[in-house]
Write a structure and sequence with these properties.
single chain; alpha+beta; CD59; 2 helices
Length: 146
């Protein structure tokens, strides 16, 4: 195979798992809040076990067909102090919509993800945002517009 074809195949196999959303069962999320434990903030510190940072299965048994996502919300409290909340939420409720965030004042960041313990990152990036750069890369290599 040519180098170009190898690059294309690599990029496809490297990206498809990231943008696939077929099933998100069987993963865990961090559940915590800086209201209870400052180790839940950024940078996230899981090495200190205070009991307030939990790893929980994000597929509750009472709703086995519902899809869930890990969520991280970074917001400002009324005194302008930054707080972070990490949780597992039902995907169908659009966990980052304004209606789901009405308890948080001045939301700075909200993101979701569907891999094991993925809501530990300082800033989460939706995998679909990687699709554009991959297509540009493939277009540059092949010389064709995709």
């Amino acid at each position: 195979m040519s180098y170009v074809l190898n690059c294309i195949i690599f990029m496809i196999f490297a990206t498809v798992p990231l943008i696939s959303s077929s099933t998100n069962y069987g993963f865990r999320c961090y559940i915590c809040s800086t209201e209870s434990d400052q180790n839940c903030g950024d940078p996230f510190n899981t090495t200190v076990n205070t009991g307030y940072i939990r790893k929980e299965n994000c597929q509750p048994t009472y709703s086995p067909t519902q899809k869930y996502v890990c969520r991280k919300v970074k917001y400002h409290k009324p005194n302008n102090e930054i707080s972070i909340y990490r949780s597992c939420e039902a995907e169908s409720d659009d966990p980052c919509s304004p209606s789901q965030l009405n308890n948080y004042l001045k939301v700075e960041h909200c993101s979701t993800c569907t891999t094991d313990l993925c809501n530990s990152a300082p800033t989460l990036i939706k995998a679909t945002s990687l699709l554009g750069p991959v297509l540009v890369f493939v277009s540059k290599i092949t010389g064709k517009i995709l």
